[in-house]
Design goal:
heterodimer, A: about 280 residues, B: alpha/beta, six-stranded mixed beta sheet, about 35% helix, globular
């Protein structure tokens, strides 16, 4: 940043640049302080504490919020991520195929499932499919349904990530491998994919965070007590106790996972950034 | 004379409407070092890439060691094992150490066991003078070192022929010498080499033959003293004069005529 005053420019007002800057900063601080004070004065602190920080309610939630709700959220996410990863690789390879119909089918899949809200897909898998094909049960019950719904959504995004990752590996890498006698498939497995994987690790981790949050949509499938995850668990308890504390606790449990993952993504990004320099 | 190591017959190559090679006939004998020179866009790199089929020729035949590379039923991976290639941009595998770059192809392609691959890798790193960089990663090496590793990687496969595609063009001037020294060593050992290069001193001193290409055809083919020292064609003379003394080129020489002016 250059702080130097440029003497060549004519002064429009009597204030120097430095003076203008300190006035601007002073105004920003003043607005911030005013908003904080206004909130502190107008808020009904007793009521807020009663609604969000009922300590005995918090204690009542443990350990079930972790051993049941968070566990189920993690399970749903993991299943969905695995399905999405497998399906995503297939769709990405189809997208890069030399066979036209494969490319088109993969393209349509990606457009459709990236264009639909995740909730619509959950309803489709949970309600529409069982109605349309009576008698065919999705294996694994709710876990299977969530894995498929999350997998379908995740695969569309992950397929694009894989494709971009594979295409980001310089062409010379494939040429070097082929000229050493590698077959195309073997060069892909030994040379291209390991490099692509490093490139896509940050966006893939972001996708994991997205799926982790989207797993809350299982709420709309109708689950048994044992199958409740964080959002459902928090909401149920909030409505039975007529208090918002369980939702706050559930929210904090999400952050417990998403914040470290977000930190990990930024670490990975700087690492790959350095490696490609 | 035995059958030539590389034989190119009436080779044509087009990219869309752009005909880059317009009928090339060329032979490289066993142990011969042939330098291919010419202006950019003359098709010299494409010719080299057609020899190991990185580019598919539009027409014509290529034989390497008696095998027709351009035959539809050829096992191209098997043929390529006998042809080492060195690229302008080195193309080392950045996710592998120097040793990994040399051992992975040996193990995956030739099926050598770990100990043997490591031994051959060490031998070849020693040949290019980089034994102490065995555990380094490509990104930590200078351009000249990377290119020497790339040469060692190709040599570790035990090729009969080495192709060099402008191996020193991406290097800082002071690093060119170390790569040329390794190539000269290979030539002295009797390796069959085809080298696309702009290094005239290397061509003059190391090559057995120099081939001058322009506009997709071979214009001149002969001993270095003849092609570089006393070229028979005006196009060769013109190219060499610009290459040896770039500061003296005329402006009109380089600027294509523009119809909207004058």
């Amino acid at each position: 940043m250059s702080d130097a005053d440029t003497p060549l420019q004519p002064r429009r007002s009597g204030l120097s640049r430095r003076q203008k800057r300190s006035i601007s900063r002073g105004v920003q601080y003043a607005v911030f302080v005013a908003v904080v004070i206004a909130f502190a004065v107008t808020a009904d602190w007793g009521r807020l504490q009663n609604q969000f920080f009922q300590w005995d309610l918090v204690k009542q939630m443990f350990p079930e919020v972790i051993t049941l709700a968070l566990k189920n959220t993690v399970l749903y996410t993991t299943f969905g991520f695995v399905v999405g990863l497998a399906l995503g690789i297939v769709v990405a390879l189809m997208r890069l195929s030399s066979v036209g119909p494969y490319r088109w089918a993969a393209g349509i899949y990606i457009e459709v499932f990236r264009g639909l809200p995740a909730l619509t897909i959950f309803i489709f898998v949970g309600v529409a499919v069982p109605l349309a094909f009576p008698g065919t049960a999705i294996p694994g019950g709710t876990y299977g349904k969530v894995a498929i719904a999350l997998g379908l959504v995740g695969a569309a995004y992950m397929a694009e990530t894989f494709r971009a990752g594979i295409q980001a590996v310089p062409k010379g890498q494939m040429e070097a491998a082929r000229s050493l006698g590698f077959s195309h498939a073997r060069a892909m497995v030994s040379i291209i994919v390991p490099q692509a994987f490093r490139i896509i690790l940050p966006p893939l981790t972001n996708e994991l965070v997205t799926l982790f949050k989207d797993s809350s949509l299982v709420l709309f499938l109708g689950v048994t007590l044992e199958e409740r995850e964080l959002s459902k668990y928090g909401r149920d308890l909030a409505s039975t106790t007529a208090n918002s504390t369980p939702i706050l606790v559930a929210g904090l449990c999400y952050l417990l996972v998403t914040v470290p993952l977000g930190y990990l993504v930024r670490r990975l990004e700087t690492k790959t950034g350095e490696a490609t320099k | 004379m035995s059958t030539p190591e590389i034989q190119v017959k009436d080779l044509h190559k087009s990219f869309g409407d752009n005909e880059v090679l317009r009928g090339i006939d060329l032979e490289v004998g066993q142990g011969e070092v042939v330098c291919v020179i010419g202006p950019s866009g003359s098709g010299k790199s494409t010719l080299l890439r057609c020899v190991n089929l990185l580019e598919e020729p539009s027409k014509g035949q290529v034989f390497v060691g008696g095998t027709e590379v351009t035959h539809a039923d050829v096992d191209i991976d098997a043929v390529r094992r006998r042809i080492g290639m060195v690229f302008q941009q080195f193309n080392l595998f950045p996710h592998l150490s120097v040793t990994g770059n040399l051992t992975l192809p040996q193990r995956r392609v030739l099926g050598r066991d770990k100990a043997e691959a490591a031994r051959i890798a060490a031998e070849n790193l020693d040949r290019v003078g980089l034994a102490e960089k065995a555990d380094a990663y490509p990104a930590s090496l200078s351009g000249g070192q990377q290119q020497r590793v790339a040469i060692a990687r190709a040599l570790a496969m035990g090729p009969d022929v080495m192709l060099f595609d402008e191996p020193t063009s991406a290097l800082d001037p002071e690093l060119v010498g170390e790569v040329l020294a390794v190539m000269r060593m290979l030539a002295d050992e009797g390796m069959t080499m085809m080298v696309v290069t702009h290094e005239m001193s290397f061509a003059r001193e190391v090559a057995d033959r120099v081939v001058f290409m322009d506009g997709g055809v071979i214009v001149e083919d002969g001993a270095p003293a003849q092609v570089i020292g006393n070229p028979a064609h005006e196009r060769t003379r013109h190219f060499l004069s610009r290459l040896l003394d770039p500061a003296m080129a005329d402006v009109e020489d380089r600027t294509p005529e523009r119809p909207d002016q004058e």
